[in-house]
Amino acid sequence: MVVFGAGASYDSCPTHPAPYNESFPDNYGQCRLPLGDKLFEERALFFPILERFPRALDVVPRLRHLLPGRNVEGVMEALRAEAETKPARHRQLAAVRYYLQWAIWDCESEWHRQAAHGVTNYRSLLDLIDLKRKPGATVCLVTFNYDTMLDTALPAVDIHIRQIDDYIASRDYKIIKVHGSTNWGREIEPPMPNMGAIANGELAQRLIEQAASWTMTDRFHVLHQRPMIRLDPHRPVVPAIAIPVQTKGAFECPDEHITTLKDCLSRVTKLLVIGWRANDMHFLKLLHDGRQAIDAWVVAGQPELANQVIENLKRGLNRPGKLQAGSGGFTQFMFNEAENFLESF
Fold first, then answer.
1. pTM of the model
2. Cis bond upstream, residue 227 (ω within 30)
């Protein structure tokens, strides 16, 4: 099993690796996929997107200027809790959902156009995994990211995503996007008649304003819409993106995908973690219930950060196997460590 977090997309291009720390220059910082606490940072790319969804502007200062010891997930947790007594929070959180879809979509597009040009560590890793994979073995790829970098790399192992079931259709590879995706829509109820007569931008604003009355369904679709608004002239959809909060009570993906994930966890023996902080307690509980004695290699940018992830993993593995810290980020792993680790499959 490979688990990807924000750090994987942040350091996704071998020709333009992520800076070692914030004091190092980054010529592509304005389009590099952001880490969690930078989702609302002041970027020229993000400014016009925020302005499209003005309800989000009410809470952006709290998400951008974090107090010591706070992170974006903690602030979003507080906003979600406040929605119980402050109805406006529903509209603000819906606007944030639309902002995240559009911002990550545009950021990924600019990253490929300016820096990666299709060359990514994701694709190289999948190619290497396919080379080392034993006949009949199943590889489960789990990502917590909203972007489609993993999706774009899947043709390297002959997986092509056209509909939601394609993620788990292959015998050899199962792909689980636990927090949704920029190209996923989730149907909401009730239906809205005559949506076809409403312009895209106006419809997005109407859906945001009506957020408190939404009922989310379990019907997910792969859709290339920005903003995510309609499946057909009567069925509204919203971005299938999990709002980043600390205590995630549910995943933003179909139940069938979670069933597949649990099945994979019951059989996994090797775990590769790239750029994931291992602080999602909902996933750690699945890991705990699924299987113990898992050997893991953790890639987190720096050894000290990887050791922090290992400590978090231990909360989900009460009988862990051998847990090793990588020496650097995704790029360094691919150049120096990937082949040796995959030889152990």
1. 0.94
2. yes
- Find, among 121, 97, 107, the residue nearest to 239 by Cα: 97
DSSP states along 146-173: SSSHHHHHGGGGT---SSGGGGGT-SSE
Ranges of each domain in the chain:
119-180+251-343
Q: What is the mean pLDDT of residues 58-63?
A: 94
HSE at residue 173, side-chain half, CA atoms within 13 A, is 22
Q: How far apart are CA 66 and CA 253, in angstroms?
A: 29
Write out the CATH class of domain 119-180+251-343. Answer: alpha beta
Contact 317, 310 (CB under 8 A): no
The pLDDT, as a whole number, for residue 282 is 84
For the chain, the farthest-separated pair of C-alpha atoms sits apart, in whole angstroms, at 59
CB 115 within 8 A of CB 193: no
Residue 72 contacts residue 36 (beta carbons within 8 Å): yes
Q: Residue 247: left (phi > 0), alpha (psi -120 to 50), or beta?
A: beta
93 Cβ partners below 8 Å, 6+ apart? 76, 79, 80, 83, 211, 243
Predicted confidence (pLDDT) per residue in 210-256, tens digit: 999 999 999 999 999 999 999 998 899 999 999 877 665 679 999 99
Dihedrals phi, psi of 229, to nearest 5 degrees: -135, -40
Three-state DSSP class for residue 197? helix
